[in-house]
TrEMBL record:
Coiled coil: none annotated. Monomer. The lineage of its organism: Bacteria, Pseudomonadati, Pseudomonadota, Alphaproteobacteria, Acetobacterales. Residues 627-769 form the Methionyl/Valyl/Leucyl/Isoleucyl-tRNA synthetase anticodon-binding domain. This is Valine--tRNA ligase.
Length: 899
């Protein structure tokens, strides 16, 4: 007998361990079944399960379990990413706690510590994914630094270099002065900083007393200025274009150029151009052929090496000795000193308080420095063209489709991809340097040495490039490197390209696009046919989760409190394509009751002797109730399947919820109670047969999203003594004779009882009070139906009787509701104060109207809509819709009261 209370903790771990031990998650390349492939976005090896993981992995697991039940050979390849900078930071911090500095122990010893840490702590995220119920093919687990994937990385790097698509160049990068490495845009976060906007006077050459004023937030970089830019149509500076200004402090002549980058509406309208320390300035410098001296070193300290020859004294403007005194100073200390010196020279016109976004390293927490360095680059523009064409022609589709626009906007304006990082942990770049600077790129050091000897002689020695590759480089190869490429393995032949990629919009460019570029280039085909983009998880108010706000939700804590199935079902219910998920504990708590409802329904069935019956034939049922629930199950199967086909997790969960809670539990089992409690006979047998059949259908329908409770009930009921539910077939519609007539009759009955219950609730009629149901305009068919279901109507609608009004009968003080062609009257004058209820409803209607008017006025304010965050605007639109719906409900309730 099932326990009275659902206790997920009593069976979740046991069931998962049983599935994994039995190999229930494994793909089989040798099978003749059609493949279904999802490539996991590999979580960082340093990571722990957060609510975003819970969202994306729940969606993926739903799809995988569903396709597996459909008979597909499903491969869901697990793995983790080595997470270069994140992992190096973790291990450095651990070593620092032991008084060890990585620079003192050297690269080789440090990497030993990293691998040791990975062996001990790197599996945390995979253990947590098991807690979530993720049915990954664990024996196939890969790691981006394992030998197979490392070989693939080397092969790709060497091949692209041979094709001229990987090269070295001196360009600006995001430089992290704390970690001493270039970092990707994804590792940069903008933070609002309260600072100043300095308006500085640059003397115009040859025009004594005339200055051009530039506005800047970074006076410390002015030592590297090589031009001043003004807008070509800005009349204030037209006569200065082509002339020169004198760079304060340094004394260098710098040209005044016309460039549309300068915005006449911002600052002074003139901007200083420092190509080596600003991405926009770098582009201006390229357009105008400007010099690009660097004045800050890797630590963010002032260096004068590249401008030392430019220093010259200009009376009242330039002070070479002062500039020399700045050498080695931190950039922010230098800023203060430079501003003070410019003020002394009376070259500061004004200083404005200025709040602006400053890029920071998301892990180091320090301001990022655009820095001109020699790095390895990949020709992303060439690789992007086939990927763009694949989306344009529909070979890869985005769901929702509008995310294709984000993909196109990035890909059509793609820049060279900086793929080198100044770290120790990662795939070391397979390049070796000879003493004369020659570069030899090869798969192994022996190959590189052979190349060098052929060119430079036998005595040549080589030093390997110390840099490693950007983590996204190896991740870009994930769809085929994990399947054994460059070897032509059976897995590669069967599972590439994959069917669907599930991920967030924030890494469309960093990961999705790069997988498409590499996949097409090396495999000749796209890596996946569909890219399903889900939103981000926010709190219940729509705010981004952050530790500082104290609104971060731990998915494992929710699992402990409410069970895995409750969290998974909540996520699926809220996962509307293209929209962020608003999640709070209350949501999960509410959806836990759905699992409890299913458990209690199954227990009711068990108590009434309902058990699996392989001999039951749905095509031979005769009672309207059995036909109706079997037909409703067919509709639920169709709706759930269509939703999953369309990647509508919310619609899938909604279809299951409505069918289980409403059709099966609230109606079918209630209608079935008299038969189940009555004498044995054909009707009782048929009701029991339909109940066991539909309960089995429900368990299969819900299994992808609620794997634990469904498997436990499946096993306990004995539906599959030789087959776990995870391997059971996805339900299909069955033939139901007389389905249309049964649907019409039972839908009428449900509609009648629901309408009466609604009126009673609106009018605050106590549940203990029973009133007659009187009909006007009822057809003979309606009256006949009422006669067949009198007991159910009395019991569930709390009715003393159900009959047509007699001739001349006109009761006063009634509430009325239309059901089909008939008007149902509930005499309430002697039960409640109808006048008081009318007044209450009118007051509530007016309150809803006032709320709607207030929100409508706010949304009509164009300034509010333009300034407010999108989620705030959306929240107000939802409030307006809710207010209008409430008004309509209350108006209808008022209209139902008469007499």
């Amino acid at each position: 007998m099932l326990d009275k209370t659902l206790s997920p903790a009593s069976f979740e771990q046991r069931l998962y361990e049983g599935w994994e031990a039995a190999g229930r998650f494994g793909a089989n390349p040798a099978s003749g079944a059609a493949p279904f492939t999802i490539m996991i976005p590999p979580p960082n090896v340093t990571g722990s399960l957060h609510i975003g993981h819970a969202l994306t992995f729940t969606i993926q697991d739903i799809l995988v379990r569903w396709r597996r039940m459909q008979g597909r050979d499903a491969l869901w390849q697990p793995g983790t990413d080595h997470a270069g900078i994140a992992t190096q930071m973790v291990v450095e911090r651990l070593l620092a706690g032991q008084g060890i500095d990585r620079r003192e122990i050297g690269r080789e010893k440090f990497l030993e510590h990293v691998w040791e840490w990975k062996a001990q702590s790197g599996g945390n995220i995979t253990r947590q994914l098991r807690r979530l119920g993720a049915s990954l093919d664990w024996p196939r687990e890969r790691f981006t630094m394992d030998e197979g994937l490392s070989a693939a990385v080397r092969e790709v790097f060497v091949t692209l270099h041979e094709q001229g698509l990987i090269y070295r160049d001196r360009r600006l990068v995001n430089w992290d002065p704390k970690f001493q490495t270039a970092i990707s845009d994804l590792e940069v976060e903008s933070r609002e900083v309260k600072g100043s906007l300095w308006h500085l006077r640059y003397p115009v050459e040859g025009e004594a007393g005339r200055f051009i004023v530039v506005a800047t937030t970074r006076p410390e970089t002015m030592l590297g200025d090589t031009a001043i830019a003004v807008h070509p149509e800005d009349g204030r500076f037209r006569d200065l274009v082509g002339k020169f200004a004198i760079l304060p402090l340094v004394g260098r002549r710098i040209p005044i150029v016309a460039d549309e980058y300068s915005d006449p509406e911002k600052g002074s309208g003139a901007v200083k151009i420092t190509p080596a320390h600003d991405f926009n300035d770098f582009a201006v410098g390229k357009r105008h052929g400007l010099a690009m001296p660097s004045v800050l070193d890797a630590d963010g300290h002032v260096m004068l090496d590249e401008i030392a020859a430019d220093l010259q004294a200009v009376e009242g403007v330039a002070e070479p000795d002062f500039v020399r005194s700045l050498a080695g100073q931190d950039r922010f200390a230098a800023r203060k000193a430079i501003v003070a010196e410019l003020e002394r020279l009376e070259l500061v016109e004004t200083i404005e308080p200025h709040t602006h976004a400053v890029p920071h390293g998301d892990r180091s927490g320090v301001p990022i420095e655009p820095r001109l360095t020699l790095q390895w680059y990949c020709d992303a523009a060439t690789l992007a063209r086939p990927a763009i064409e694949a989306v344009e022609t529909g070979r890869t589709e985005f769901v929702p489709k509008h995310f294709e626009n984000i993909f196109f906007s990035w890909m059509r304006d793609i820049q060279p991809w900086c793929i080198s990082r100044q770290l120790w942990w990662g795939h070391q770049i397979p390049a070796w340097y000879a003493p004369d600077g020659s570069v030899f790129v090869a798969r192994t050091e022996a190959e590189a040495l052979a190349q060098a000897r052929a060119r430079l002689g036998d005595g040549v020695t080589l030093a390997r490039d110390p840099d490693v590759l950007d983590t996204w480089f190896s991740s870009a190869l994930w769809p085929f490197s994990t399947l054994g490429w460059p070897e032509r393995t059976p897995e590669l032949e069967k599972y590439y390209p994959g069917d669907v990629l599930v991920t967030g919009w924030d890494i469309i460019f960093f990961w999705v696009a790069r997988m498409m570029m590499m996949g097409h280039h090396f495999m000749g085909d796209v890596p996946f046919r569909t890219v399903y983009i889900h939103g981000l998880v926010r709190d219940e108010k729509g705010q981004k989760m952050s530790k500082s706000k104290g609104n971060v939700i731990d998915p494992l804590e929710l699992v402990e409190s409410y069970g895995t199935d409750a969290l998974r079902f909540t996520i699926a219910s809220l996962a509307t394509p293209g929209r962020d998920v608003k999640l709070g504990r209350k949501r999960v708590e509410d959806f836990r009751s759905f699992g409890t409802k299913l458990w209690n329904a199954a227990r009711f069935c068990e108590m009434n002797g309902i058990a699996p019956d392989p001999s039951f034939d749905p095509s031979k049922v005769e009672t309207p109730l059995a036909r109706w629930i079997l037909d409703a199950a067919n509709a639920a199967i169709a709706e759930a399947t269509a939703a999953l086909e369309a990647y509508r997790m919310d619609d899938y969960a909604g279809a299951c919820y409505r069918f289980v809670w409403n059709s099966f539990c609230d109606w079918f089992l209630e209608f079935a109670k008299p038969a189940l409690g009555g004498e044995d006979g054909a009707e009782k047998a048929e009701v029991k047969g339909a109940a066991q059949h539909v309960l089995g259908t429900i368990l299969r329908l819900l299994h992808p999203v609620m794997p634990y409770v469904t498997e436990e009930l499946w096993d306990r009921f004995g539906y599959g003594p030789e087959c776990s539910l995870i391997g059971a077939p996805w339900p299909e519609a069955v033939a139901v004779p007389g389905a249309e007539a049964a649907r019409a009759e039972l839908d009428w009955l449900v509609g009648l009882i629901s309408a009466v219950r609604g009126v009673r609730s609106e009018m605050n009629v106590p549940p203990s009070v029973m009133v007659p149901l009187l009909l006007q305009g009822a057809s003979d068919e309606t009256l006949a139906r009422g006669g067949r279901w009198t007991d159910a109507i009395r019991r569930l609608a709390r009715a003393t009787e159900f009959r047509a009004l007699g001739a001349g009968e006109a009761p006063k003080g009634v509430a009325q509701v239309v059901v089909a062609e008939a008007t149902v009257l509930l005499p309430l004058a002697e039960v409640i104060d109808l006048g008081a209820e009318r007044a209450r409803l009118a007051k509530e209607r007016d309150k809803a109207a006032a709320e709607g008017a207030k929100v409508e006025q706010k949304l009509a304010n164009a300034d509010f809509v333009a300034r407010a965050k999108p989620e705030v605007v959306e929240e107000n639109r939802e409030r307006l819709a809710a207010a209008r719906a409430e008004m309509a409900r209350l108006e209808a309730a008022l209209a139902r009261i008469s007499g």
